[in-house]
Write a structure and sequence with these properties.
Elements: E1 3-4, E2 10-12, E3 36-44, E4 74-82, E5 89-90, E6 97-98
Antiparallel strand pairs: 1-2, 3-4, 4-5, 4-6
Length: 105
Amino acid sequence: MAQMNPNNTLVDKWEGPTRISGEKGDTGSQGPAGNFTEYIFARNNSWDTAPTLTQTRNPAGWSTQVPAKTSGKVLWATFATINGSTGALIGNWAEPYYMTGATGG
């Protein structure tokens, strides 16, 4: 450690390193589960219109698992914040966006 004055200049020389450690305290109680972002997925045949999305915790037709790839089906995704303690939806699902790339020609 060194001692500095208010002008940020050295007042006293540097000393060797000093180890600072405290005693181990008691383990605290478990805190609440943290909120998290959840992604859900759905497929349909449209590049312009996402599958119907209701602002409920588990919208019908949407899943946390990516649906199997199907020829001609567009993969859509959305996300929302979920309460880590209750599992409830916080706010709304975001506007869905498509994840399938355009077909090459």
